[in-house]
Amino acid sequence: MENVVLIIHLILALGLIAVVLLQRSEGGGLGMGGGGGGAVSGRAAATALGKVTWALAAGFIATSITLTIIAAEKSAGSSVIDRLSATPPAQSQDGSPALPAGDDLLPPSADGNTPLVPAAD
Length: 121
Known about the structure:
Elements: H1 2-22, H2 48-75, H3 80-83, H4 102-105
Keywords: Cell membrane, Membrane, Protein transport, Translocation, Transmembrane, Transmembrane helix, Transport
Membrane topology: Multi-pass membrane protein
Organism: Sulfitobacter faviae
């Protein structure tokens, strides 16, 4: 279910981007854009692209809320503390966390058995 909503969400996002880029600039922001030279009315005419933009925006918001609810339901059963291991990390003698062995820090060799360690001279 989550994957279906996510795919619909992505399609709506791409469609919303495309429709917004197709619309003509009305010149409202920052004094830039195409000027019509006519009388400026307080209300823009509702064009077909404007209606499609509102429909896609409403669908985008609805899928966003749906995805948030799905994610909240999935994580409601456990917390981060529940996911931690039951055994605490090893402590050294002075109380500070023990450092990993040197072999754990090296990348594996080509045969996968021994780490690549430079020969000690």
